[in-house]
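Let us work through a complete example step by step.
Step 1: write down the sequence.
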Amino acid sequence: MMPSILLSPSKGGCSNYENAVLAAGGRPLARYCPAETDWDCGGLLLCGGDDIDPARFGQENQGSTGIDPERDEAEFAAVRAFLAAGKPILAICRGHQILNVALGGSLRQDISPAQRLFHAHDPAEKKDRVHPLRAAEGSLLHRFYGPVFPVNSSHHQALDQLGEGLLPTAWSESELIEAVELPGRDVLGVQFHPERMTGALSRPDTIDGQAIFSWFLARCREAAHG
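Step 2: predict the structure and record it as tokens.
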């Protein structure tokens, strides 16, 4: 069975996410600002992109850019719908932050210059940063990759107050929260970009992100079978 996966990307598209879902045995359905008619998919993949409106977590703008209120609204609604239906969710980068805010959490709108040396994309280099993560024992990422492993990085914001029920499961060298799970649910959020570390985009200096997509598609198939 090839479950359909709702992808919620930016206006620029999401070919890397689509390729990763296809390789893991899923059928990607990409929808910028997905509507209620798209919620019958077997799983939700929240893609990366620009920043969330800080008003969503009760703050004034202190460095957030590229705000898209329509996308925010559509993705918050999709998260609520898929959680209510008990369907799997994989949330990546901006999606990781959407998940947190949708559950009542907040963000650090602009991490410190010292931290950005390790985490923010450098346009001059035209590639992601790479840094190590430490995973909690027993977590999904620990199961996939062990206690310490290298990932890519391209972000200037990070989780702050955690949303209701979320459990932090991986941290950067400066203790930024890089992964969360929702215990008892098939929900995983990661701050890094596994879709840019797999298939034709695999790289020797990081993990292979495909393990994350394989887990997600397996959970979607199991959920579809009840």
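Step 3: interpret the result. The chain is about 30% helix and 20% strand.
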